[in-house]
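S1.2 Input.
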Amino acid sequence: MNCPAFFIGAYQIWEISGHVTIVVRGVTPPIPAIINGLFFDPPSPVTAAGHLTVSASARATPIRICAPSDPSYSRSQLSVRVTALPVGGRVTLSDGVTAVTAHEPLTVDQLTSLKFVPSASETTASTFAYTVTNPAAGSTPGSVLIAAEVPRASPLPPRCSAAGMEEAPILRNDSRREISLLVPRSSIIPSDIAVLINDGDQQSIVVAQYFQLRHAIPDANMIHLRLPITPAKGANFAISAQEFATLKAQVDAQLGENIQAYAITWTQPYMVLGDSAGAVGITSAFTYGYDSAAARSSHYFNSATYHPYTDFHIRPAMMLAGYTP
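S1.3 Output.
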């Protein structure tokens, strides 16, 4: 590899032959560079999605946002701007009193010491969102799902208590006391669902957290994955049949026999491409496998079963996520 370097004014120029990864540091902010015809952007800050659940009657509670980082800059050089506020309470500075407003600039130290003061009269779950920017104008969004919970006045979601049965709450006519009655299953229940999460996609993480909170999905059913590509709006809409086979094997290895269906929390990829069946939607591929013959001859269609995996050895899949700019 030939890698001579020299300066022209304040900028550093590199003549490079071969395949390398380069980070240029200097007295000026990094700028995009074209090396051997390829375009290189300076790296952007790194953020991590968060999750906070508090009682609706709690006092000011630290949100504990992870400090953003940047491979080229110190945290003191990063700037933060609030882009969305949660409902069901207010976000404050570390004093628990001074309210944070939309579009307000913050330092990293202020971001990591924010608190949430709940004021909800009913259970809420919403997002506090922000953007971290470095001196080279590279920016990355960050978010925290904040849930303020009010104690349930109604019973928990039904749980399976016997094969083919579930508990249904009823009120006794004489005492008006609530009792449970075992009845035939009327639907797929939360413990039947596996939630598929792409840990490389922040929106997938937040959507999965919210879905779990609202539907009481067991922790064991939250399946964390690293997709072969990192989704981006308008790109990376498909993976190959070979990549999907690897991904499906990772999912299957984490599932128990009780799992009857999938909830997919990413928006991309939404298609599987291959030679044998052409383009297949990723929900169909998870349900039937990448096999067009299986999709054409499903015994699940119009059946009354609530146990599609037990009865037909398929797990129906649906996608939950949507893109919010």
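S1.4 Remarks. DSSP finds six helices and 21 strands in the chain.
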